[in-house]
Amino acid sequence: MANRGMASRPNGQVAGNKMCQFKLVLLGESAVGKSSLVLRFVKGQFHEFQESTIGAAFLTQTVCLEDTTVKFEIWDTAGQERYHSLAPMYYRGAQAAIVVYDITNQDSFARAKNWVKELQRQANPNIVIALAGNKTDLANQRTVDFEEAQGYSEDNGLLFMETSAKTAMNVNDVFLAIAKKLPKNDQSMQSGNANLTVEPPPPSRSQCCA
Ligand SMILES: Nc1nc2c(ncn2[C@@H]2O[C@H](COP(=O)(O)OP(=O)(O)OP(=O)(O)O)[C@@H](O)[C@H]2O)c(=O)[nH]1
Ligand SMILES: [Mg+2]
């Protein structure tokens, strides 16, 4: 892509006028921190007593790259097993996914691997998948090794980061890494102003780019 001489401003201010829009879905076992990661990314907040998601929640957030503004349409799914059958509705057509586990919970890592398998079988074949090992602030209770998750991610072509929605560690970074990896082709490209895009009415929206 042509560099128009603008400085890179991760999650920052004004970029060039190219706008790309991508559907991103969060998947993972209940209570691993999916909603908390989204809340941190979109609003910069963290709630100790975050309520369990019912069905799914929709939010948007924008990331600025060198000469492109990437708008994420984020579907935060409910991790409780009874909502599993709804998941294909949210990952179908998604260009990106963040599969989340809790580094203090081995079962949630096993569940994350199942989500990755399901995405590899049934989602868009070009989907960009990131694996996020959340709750790194609880490292003293860790049961999932960093190296194991990293090795698994390399074997499966996933982006991998350990995150903390509580301290904000690597939260913007994981979305930024996805934004960089996504192909900026004609289908994702929107011409002109970010505010002219059409979307379903979200419960909450926020943009980091002026
Ligand atoms: N210590 C710590 N707690 C976290 C972190 N992220 C989330 N939590 C807590 O974990 C609990 C569950 O977080 P949620 O964001 O609701 O988890 P979820 O994956 O969206 O759960 P479902 O909506 O049921 O699928 C909440 O009490 C959060 O405050 C983190 O990074 N560190
Ligand atoms: Mg949730």
UniProtKB/TrEMBL annotation:
Its main location: membrane. It holds the Pfam family Ras. It is a lipid-anchor. One of its GO terms (molecular function) is G protein activity. InterPro entries: P-loop_NTPase, Small_GTP-bd, Small_GTPase. Its EC number is 3.6.5.2. Residues 186-196 have a biased composition (Polar residues). It is an enzyme of class 3 (hydrolase). It comes from the Eukaryota. Residues 186-210 are annotated as: Disordered. GO terms for biological process: protein transport. It catalyses: GTP + H2O = GDP + phosphate + H(+). It is found in: Cell membrane; Early endosome membrane. GO terms for cellular component: early endosome membrane; plasma membrane. Keywords: Endosome, GTP-binding, Hydrolase, Lipoprotein, Nucleotide-binding, Prenylation, Protein transport, Transport. Belongs to the small GTPase superfamily. Rab family. This is small monomeric GTPase. It comes from Petromyzon marinus.
